[in-house]
Write a structure and sequence with these properties.
Elements (H helix, E strand, L loop, with lengths): L5 H5 L11 E7 L4 E4 L6 E7 L1 E6 L2 E7 L2 E5 L5 E5 L3 E7 L24 H4 E3 L2 H15 L5 H18 L2 H8 L1 H4 L4 H8 L6 H8 L3 H12 L3 H17 L6 H7 L5 H12 L3 H9 L1
Antiparallel strand pairs: 1-8, 2-7, 3-6, 3-8, 4-5, 4-7, 6-9
Helix pairs in contact: 3-4, 8-9
């Protein structure tokens, strides 16, 4: 289908030709390899046609067939190899999707038998097929508006909630923690990548409340208090590095300006970043 007024779409500020989030379609020849780069967001692979094998964390040579899907946690590098001519749709999850649409995942809990790789792969049911067909139509027509990507993610979450059981969804998204290892290890590996409790919970696709409760059970204190201590330690460590400017440090730690960072240092350590660096030298 031909897209009308293409130039009008291309000139729009919301047109995302290349983006780290949203949907993309991949066509693979037999024996072709493709590496999924999901360093900035979690990804879901929807197998539309064909068959591929891939590694997912500690699980090796997994096979996913036509009309199946698998969730790939952020920073779990994945290489897929096409057994036959294949076509798939990738969704790199956007953190701007309405929180209310994914809060239901926070109420999910995996109980009973031990998790296996079979639990991570779900069938693509008819209602979801229709959503993906519409996404493919938009992608092929180059209707790449940012709003389209957000709306289709919301619709997809609605379909998951309506046509899959809580047990299925819990096992599907549990790959986010089961593949990474223990919850404590996950926290220690990722706390430097986020600047808020909300962002931390978003990495696990659960609510802030559920994440905070699980954190307190594991670490014995509130997540907010722990993150504030770690942020202070990280700031002191970065100040000790003479190669980093205070403006760089301020930006990496999520402060709005260097003056805010200076005020933070005075509050936490009783002196400015400059004096802290001089004290460290001595």
């Amino acid at each position: 289908m031909k897209l009308l007024y293409l130039n009008e779409h291309l000139s729009c500020l919301n047109y995302q030709m290349d983006s780290d989030v949203g949907f993309s379609c991949q066509q693979l020849e037999k024996d072709e390899e493709y590496r999924i780069d999901n360093g900035k967001s979690s990804c879901t692979l929807f197998m539309i046609e064909g068959e591929v094998i891939f590694d997912l964390g500690k699980y090796k040579a997994l096979r996913i067939l036509q009309n199946q899907m698998v969730f790939i946690p952020q920073n779990i590098g994945t290489r897929i190899e096409s057994i036959t001519g294949s076509r798939c749709i990738l969704l790199f999850w956007d953190r701007n999707v309405s929180v209310c649409d994914k809060l239901f995942l926070g109420s999910l809990a995996v109980k009973g038998k031990e998790q296996t790789v079979d639990n991570f792969i779900l069938p693509i049911r008819e209602p979801l097929v229709k959503v993906l067909d519409s996404v493919r139509t938009y992608l092929e027509a180059r209707l790449l508006c940012r709003h389209m990507h957000l709306l289709k993610q919301q619709e997809l979450l609605l379909v998951l909630k309506g046509f899959y059981t809580k047990k299925e969804l819990a096992e599907f998204f549990s790959a986010s923690t089961c593949i990474r290892g223990s919850f404590e290890k996950f926290v220690l590996e990722n706390y430097k990548k986020v600047n808020s409790v909300k962002e931390f919970a978003g990495l696990c696709y659960i609510s802030e409340r559920s994440f905070s409760r699980k954190f307190h059970s594991s670490f014995g204190e509130s997540l907010y208090k722990w993150m504030q201590k770690k942020k202070a330690e990280q700031a002191l460590e970065m100040i000790s590095d003479p190669e980093l400017s205070f403006q760089e440090i301020s930006g990496k730690l999520g402060f709005n300006s260097s003056s805010h960072f200076t005020a933070y240092c005075r509050k936490m350590y009783g002196m400015s970043p400059t004096k802290l660096r001089e004290k460290n030298k001595k």
